[in-house]
Amino acid sequence: MANRLDPLHVFQFKVEFKEDSLPGANKPETALPSLQSAFSECSGLEATMEPKVINVGGLNYGAVQRPGPVTFGTVILKRGITPVQDLWAWFHVLNGEDKYAYRVTATITLRDAKNKDQLKWVLQRAMPIKFKVPDLNATGSDVGIEELHLAHEGITLEFPTNPDQKKPKTPGTANE
């Protein structure tokens, strides 16, 4: 009987940051413990490829489609606001002298019901482009949610080593 792969739930995830300088910058990779934050929501993990349309003479049924440039969505992280303002400090550092060199590798890990890592999305050279505090309302009783928007230079998908599951087949490779 074949192993059944159940869909993963999206409510259990973690976000980790590691300093990642731009190429040519003399900054070592070091962990940023002040940015190890618990987030309640993560959105915008997406990549879009704009196809190149080629009109071929004599081909009257339609144009030929070829891969084109890829763009990445803005990743939005949300969490309950606290007196600790590490995200604001990271956003604010971009106004200083290191604004062109300071980046992070952000890893978003989706976990299963047994708390095992299942999928990891790694954002290369991410930087904050927007910081938003919650709307203030004296008549409300909601928890305030702050947002951090990240731009990045690429996204990769990693499959953590898990002895209980088979590695997915990559398109274009031979079956094992």
- Distance between the amino and carboxyl termini: 17 Å
Helical run tally: 1
Show unreliable segments.
Answer: none
Integer average pLDDT: 81
Radius of gyration: 21 Å
Question: What do these coordinates show?
Answer:
With 176 residues, the protein is mainly β. It has one domain (13-47, 70-158): Pnp Oxidase, Chain A. 4% of the residues lie in helices and 36% in strands. It has 1 helix and 11 strands, in the order βββββββαββββ. The chain has one helix at residues 86-92; strands spanning 13-19, 41-43, 47-49, 52-54, 64-66, 70-72, 75-80, 104-111, 117-132, 145-151, 155-158. The strands form 3 sheets. Strands 1, 2, 7, 8, 9, 10 and 11 form a 7-stranded antiparallel sheet that branches. Strands 3-6 form a two-stranded antiparallel ribbon. Strand 8 and strand 9 form a beta hairpin. 10% of the residues are buried.
